[in-house]
Every structure is written in C-alpha cells, then in structure tokens.
Amino acid sequence: MISLNAKNGNLGVKNIESFVNAQKADVVLLQEYGGNRDYHFEGLKRFPDTAIVAVFSKFKIIQHKGLVKSNFDHTNVYVSQTDIDVNGNICRFINVHLQPFRFEKKMINLGENDKQGEEKLKNIVKRLIPVFKIHQDEVANVKKAVENSPYPVILAGDFNSVPNSYEYYHLLNGMQDCFVEAGKGSATSFHDYKFPIRIDYIFASKSIKPISYKVDRSVKISDHFPVIATFKLEK
C-alpha cells in the first residue's frame, strides 16, 4: 500500500500517477488529493470522497464512510474509514489527515532580532493551541473507530504531528508502528522545511504482520515523500 499527502496535485497529477502505477500498489490512500483532481491509477478504483482524503483499491470495497469533518468546512472529510475485502480477509483502512497547522516557512524563521522573533513565536503559539484542541477530538474519534472495528485495522496518513506527540502515542496505543517493526533508516517524510520531519505514518493492528516499510525519497511529487508498506494478512 501507499500513503501520500499529494499537496492537491500541485506538483503534477501525472507525476503522482506515474509513481503509483510503477509501484503496482493494491491500496492507495491520498491526503490533500484535491477535490477537482482526476487520478487514473492502473487497476485501482477510487471511492468517491471529498477534497481532503481519497481511497483507491484493486480489491472490493465493502463499506466506506467519513469519520471526521473539518472544523472550518463541514463539507470536507478529514478522516475516512474503508472496509476492504483483501482476498477473503476484510481489513479496515482508516485514512487520516489531522487538522493542519498551516505554517508558512517565513513563520518558522524567527527573524533577525529579538522583537521579530518574539512576535513570530506569539503567532505560532496562537496557531498551535486551537489546532491541538481540534486534534484531541479527531484522535478520540479515530481511536473509537479502531477500538470498535470487527476487523484488523491499518491506520495511515498525515498526522501533522511528530513521533513524541500526544497524537502519536494515543493513536499508536494498541497498534504497531510499521516503521518500527519493518523499516530501516529514517522515516522522515515532510521535506518542505529546512530540516525534514516525520508526520506521515502507517500503523497496523497487532494481528497484521508488517513485511516492509519505506519512505521513498527518490521522488518529489509533493512536499511529502510517499510512504510504502507491505503486509501479511493471516486468515
């Protein structure tokens, strides 16, 4: 499977299509795919969704619904839940895009003097606090969907949170971080700032065995690198 924040396809829908088709993925989860974008992935059918998250699968989709809507635009689903029949094994895929902080690069640079830095820091804090509160509600809804699932769960997407965060630890509880289990090297995925950070993840129920996990840094089809994982499902 592939999980990718597509940056609304701004760096080229065709580039994303070429990458995904070369991987021959069975399931693709996109975040920020762009509501008016029309992706054509070979052998994959898309389940209609809103402008934020989209699911593509070569397997039969049993059920699909939105879990979390934007606090600012209730027509946009930020988290979706899709039950997919993978060769007789039903698995619940939860596609996550937690509310973004909407930082700009110039905000991260605190400025040349103390006054500029202090003012920018205040603006950062003003953005952080309300988004953290939104994340608490979003995380609670996702956790409920995981805990109530009758099927094994793969939870993936853009958490807009680093690994030592509230969001990471609460969503990981009862799950496994597939990078920790099967990955190598660094899992940093967002590369638009000077220093790359890890905010994209794939978690799985403990009954699912991660075989491989890779952040593909060879392509720049978005401000996020694609995250690719393979799994073994037991009958």
TrEMBL record:
Pfam families: Exo_endo_phos (PF03372). InterPro entries: Endo/exonu/phosph_ase_sf, Endo/exonuclease/phosphatase, GPI-anchor_lipid_remodeler. Coiled coil: none annotated. SUPFAM superfamilies: DNase I-like. CDD domains: EEP-2. Residues 5-224 form the Endonuclease/exonuclease/phosphatase domain. It comes from the Bacteria. This is Endonuclease/exonuclease/phosphatase domain-containing protein.
